[in-house]
Design brief:
Number of domains: 3
Strand order of the largest sheet: 10-9-8-11-13-12
Helix content: 25-40%
CATH architecture of the largest domain: 3-Layer(aba) Sandwich
Low-confidence stretches: 233-249
Structural class: alpha/beta
CATH topology of the largest domain: Rossmann fold
CATH superfamily of the largest domain: P-loop containing nucleotide triphosphate hydrolases
Order of helices and strands: HHEEEEEEEEHEHHEHEHEEHHHH
Radius of gyration: 23 Å
Mean pLDDT: 85
Number of helices: 11
Shape: globular
Length: about 375
């Protein structure tokens, strides 16, 4: 039988592995001898899973997960829960992927539409930005958009110990700029355990948090400070442009003291929407509410009379740059949604016969 106490230390959200409201119940009749295990590392060659905080082990993935036609978001990611069997004297095998409670994802880079899961089954998203040349309010708005529903975002501003020396007033300016986003904000020194303690208010037992942000903002340093160990490599930031180097090369889940979990991720430079985001819920509810006050329902907020958006910009109630980012993100979401719909239409249609099938049908 699975050790429920051990599973809860790595984020299992249910009181039992046979909870009536849990994903296990829907699959237990089919996989009665399987047990849940969490994906703690994802590599090109496969996955490492764990059932407790003491050890992880490789698991043989399902053949379906290795097929090229399977969309990336349908494959397991760090934070996912699998049903597995074996593993004591033989190689452990994955039998099923349990339904996700939440996920952070973005559109994949490249010309063709695709989605990439950053982390699955997370409760808290720490959006990490350093108070140096990396700080960019528009990028933070993008992160908030990708977080979506199902997880609570928290903006973490690092390098607070040196920021004021180089730029007096930078902390006040940053927190004032973030106030309009309606999100929790904290400033800290990622190397100082006493400073990092502020994050523990979001790291209750059973909680899974993920660190996201650009390279060099201090995500790996935060991880090392929270764990009290040098579990992640850290590197220097270029002085010329404050850009960091990729020291974290893969996503991994780490158990923390107090029965919370933390997922560290490589730095991300491209943050493209998937087309499933909702500006009304993901950081721009105030602008959406203002738009409802415009005199005309189809107002484009350019120069129409009675435009509530333009009036708010003129009075300083709404930042013009934030509104332009809202328009830009809305356009990107629309384009991505069209690509997603096109992909779904192609997938739902009849499959084209393979070359082998065509050769078989060819008359001799």
């Amino acid at each position: 039988m699975p050790d429920i106490a051990a599973l809860r230390q790595i984020g299992w959200p249910y009181a039992t592995t046979r909870a009536a409201d849990g994903p296990w119940a829907a699959l237990q009749s089919e996989y009665s001898l399987a047990r849940p295990a969490r994906v703690v590392e994802q590599h090109r060659s496969g996955y490492l899973v764990a059932e407790d905080i003491e050890r992880s082990y490789p698991v043989e993935s399902l053949p379906d997960w290795q097929r090229p036609r399977l969309h990336a978001e349908q494959r397991p990611a760090v934070g996912d829960w699998l049903l597995v069997t074996g593993g004591e004297e033989s190689l452990a095998r994955a039998l099923a992927l349990l339904p996700r409670r939440s996920a952070i994802k973005r559109s994949s880079a490249g010309k063709h539409y695709g989605q990439q899961i950053i982390a699955a089954n997370i409760d808290i998203v720490f959006i990490v930005s350093s108070l140096d040349g990396d700080f960019n309010i528009r990028r933070i708005e993008r992160y908030l958009l990708l977080v979506g529903g199902g997880a609570q975002p928290v903006v973490v501003l690092t390098k607070a110990d040196i920021a004021e020396d180089h730029d007096p007033g930078v902390i006040a300016r940053a927190t004032n700029a973030l106030a309009a986003l309606g999100v929790a904000v904290c400033t800290l020194n990622a190397r100082d355990p006493a400073s990092v303690d502020v994050l523990k208010r979001w790291l209750a037992p059973g909680i899974t948090a993920v660190l996201v942000g650009s390279s060099g903002v201090g995500k790996s340093t935060l991880t090392n400070t929270l764990t009290g160990e040098q579990v992640m490599k850290t590197g220097a930031v270029r002085t010329s442009d404050a850009r960091g180097r990729h020291t974290t090369t893969h996503r991994c889940l780490i158990a923390l003291a107090g029965d919370a979990c933390l997922i560290d991720t490589p730095g991300m430079r491209e943050l493209k929407p998937t087309g499933e985001e909702d500006l009304r819920e993901d950081g721009f509810a105030d602008i959406e509410a203002l738009a409802l006050e415009c005199r005309f329902r189809d107002c484009r907020h350019i120069g129409e009379p009675g435009c509530a958006i333009r009036a708010a910009i003129e009075t300083g109630e709404l930042d013009a740059a934030r509104f332009e980012n809202y328009r830009k993100l809305g356009s990107e979401i629309g384009q991505a949604a069209a690509q997603l719909a096109s992909r779904n239409t192609r997938n739902s249609g009849p499959k084209k016969p393979s070359r082998t099938a065509k050769r078989r049908k060819r008359p001799r």
